[in-house]
């Protein structure tokens, strides 16, 4: 995700179904209290883009 890869790309590289990747992403978002990838980027970057 940090490299900007899609769920399908990540799944292909890991040899798992893309829905498994999507479920892991949903769980991560829920645990962090965020709703989307942009929120994740802002969270890990300390709120700074670029």
From TrEMBL:
Xref: Pfam families: GerE
GO biological process: regulation of DNA-templated transcription
GO MF annotation terms: DNA binding
Coiled-coil spans in chain: none
Domain of life: Bacteria
PROSITE patterns assigned: HTH_LUXR_2
Sequence ranges assigned to domain HTH luxR-type in this UniProt record: 1-48
Protein name (database record): LuxR C-terminal-related transcriptional regulator
